[in-house]
Specification:
Blueprint lengths: L9 E3 L4 H10 L4 H6 L6 E7 L6 H4 L13 E5 L3 E7 L3
Length: 90
């Protein structure tokens, strides 16, 4: 496991999706499949907007059955947010 987004991953960023779409586009990354495809993925990066009062627990239900997920791993924290990696067991 590493902290890099790879093909087939998903980014869940409710409330931060448009800004991420902008920055991903600046890097030449097609954001639609990463940000807006709701199909379950083996790896999902969850972006928590702490300025908006979000917690990772607020967003996890959007990934489906929580019993099918490995507990989130905090990858990094910023003044305005946190990034977690959530995986489905193989």
């Amino acid at each position: 496991m590493d902290g890099q987004v790879e093909p087939g991953d998903r980014i869940l960023a409710t409330g931060s999706d448009t800004i991420l779409e902008y920055y991903l586009g600046r890097e030449g990354v097609e954001a639609n499949a990463l940000l807006y495809d709701e199909e379950p993925r083996d790896r999902t990066f969850v972006v928590v907007n702490t300025l908006g009062g979000q917690t990772v627990d607020d967003l996890l239900p959007q990934l489906g059955d929580l019993d099918e997920l490995v507990p989130p791993v905090l990858l990094t924290s910023f003044d305005s947010g946190q990034v977690y990696l959530v995986e489905r067991p193989a």
